[in-house]
Specification:
This protein is mainly beta and about 90 residues long. About 5% of the residues lie in helices and about 40% in strands.
Length: about 90
């Protein structure tokens, strides 16, 4: 079975792709190629995207990366695209 790295805030876990788990690809930026588990997220939360903590990239430990779905993603099944990175949780899009 294929296993991909899923973002968990601590460096990622390897997991097998299993039915019932909703995963979206992270495209671009420091977390490019990883998956984000959005199982249980409401549609509003998925539409807003997510500010993710990562030690990868320009800002090192404690850095943040903001990912959002494409504006044209009405189904909620397309990758979350990297928008910007910053040094702390005060990053604004």
């Amino acid at each position: 079975m294929d296993a991909r790295q899923v973002y968990d805030g601590w460096g990622g876990e390897r997991c097998e792709l299993v039915p019932g788990r909703v995963l979206v690809d992270l495209a671009g930026g420091p977390l490019d190629g990883r998956l984000l588990d959005v199982s249980g997220w409401r549609a509003e939360g998925r539409a807003e995207g997510s500010l993710l903590v990562t030690d990868l990239g320009l800002y090192g430990p404690g850095g943040r990366a903001f990912y959002t779905p494409a504006e044209t993603d009405l189904q909620g099944d397309r990758p979350f695209r990297w928008r910007l990175s910053g040094p702390c949780a005060r990053v604004r899009a």
